[in-house]
Amino acid sequence: MTSPHAAAPAEGSPELRAVLWDMDGTLVDTEPYWIAAEAPLVEEYSGTWTHEDALQLVGLSLDASARILQQAGVRLSVDEIITTLSARVIASCVENGVPFRPGALELLRDLRAAGIRTGLVTMSMRHMALAIADLIDFPAFDVVVAGDDAHRPKPYPDPYLQAAEALGVDIADTVAIEDSPNGLRAAIASGAVALGVPNMVSLDGVGAAELWPTLAGRTSGDLAALHAAYAVRTAGELA
Predict the structure, then answer these.
(1) pLDDT per position as a tens digit, 42-94
(2) Which helix (H) or strand (E) holds 70?
(3) Which residues contact 237 (CB under 8 A, 6 or more apart)?
(4) Cβ distance 17 to 176 under 8 Å?
(5) Strand order in the sheet with 174-178
(6) How many Å separate Cα 68 from the centre of its chain?
(7) 194 close to 160: Cβ distance less than 8 angstroms
(8) Identical fold at 18-29+100-238 and 31-96?
(9) CATH code for 31-96?
(10) DSSP 3-state assignment of 98?
(11) How far apart are CA 225 and CA 95, in angstroms?
C-alpha cells in the first residue's frame, strides 16, 4: 500500500533499519486504565488524586510514578504499588479489551512486510509488555525492552540504546515513536529519529523530528521518508 503522505527518500539517504515503539499511549491506549487504577489506590489511603495529578505520571517510569503515589499518601512499597497497579490494568484489559491506537497495528504489519525490524520499548513491566504483545495476531516485535530490563528509565536514553543493541542496528538508523514528553526526551537523547504522536498530553516544543496527529493511514514508506529527511536536515545543519 502506498501512503498519500509518503515522499521518496533521497538517493543515498541513510537506511531505516528498525522502528522502536513505546507501548502505553502509542501502541495501545491503556493510559486511561492506569489513571482509573491510580485514584482508587490513593483514596484507599485517604488521599486525593486528581486528573491533573494523573497526567503528570504519563511517560514516567513506574518506579518514579510509585514514589509520587507514596507522596500522595499510599503506604505501600514501590514494588507493591507497581504490582497492584499492573494487576488492575491487566484486569481492565481482560475485561474491556486492549484498545490499540488508530493505525498502530496496520503500521506494524506493514513494517513487518517491508522487512524493517521492530522493538517494543516500554516502562511497563516485562510480563505486562509480553501480555500485550501476545494479543497481536502476528509476530509484531523482534525485541522487547521493558521497565525491569532498562539500565535507567526514560527519559534516559538507555532503553532505546538497549533495544538498538539487541537488534544489532545503529540507533541513528531507527525511528522511535512516542506519545509522551519523557519518552520523546529518551528517544532524542538516544540519537534515534524521534516521532511524536500526541495522545493525552502535548508534545509541542519537546524537540521531536516531526509530530503526527495519528498513525492512521501511515506506512513503512512514511517512516523511511521521515528518517531520510531528518538525516538530510541534520547533515545540512552540521555542514
Answers:
(1) 999 999 999 999 998 987 888 999 999 999 999 999 999 999 999 999 889 88
(2) helix 62-71
(3) none
(4) no
(5) 143-145, 117-121, 18-21, 174-178, 193-196, 210-211
(6) 21
(7) no
(8) no
(9) 1.10.150.240
(10) coil
(11) 39
87-125 pLDDT, tens per residue? 999 889 888 888 899 999 999 999 999 999 999 999 988
What type of residue sits at position 126? Answer: R
Q: 18-29+100-238: what CATH class?
A: alpha beta
DSSP 26: T
Q: Where are the domains of the chain?
A: 18-29+100-238, 31-96
State the amino acid at position 65 in one-letter form: S
117: its cell numbers: 525490524
Alpha-carbon distance of 233 to 230, in angstroms, equals 5
pTM for this model (two decimals): 0.83
Angstrom distances, CA of residue 23 to CA of 7, 74, 119, 124, 178: 27, 26, 10, 8, 8
**CA 167, CA 163: separation in Å to the nearest integer?**
6
Closest by CA to 117, choosing from 213, 225, 15, 26, is: 15
Lookup: cell for 20: 522502536
CB 215 within 8 A of CB 109: no
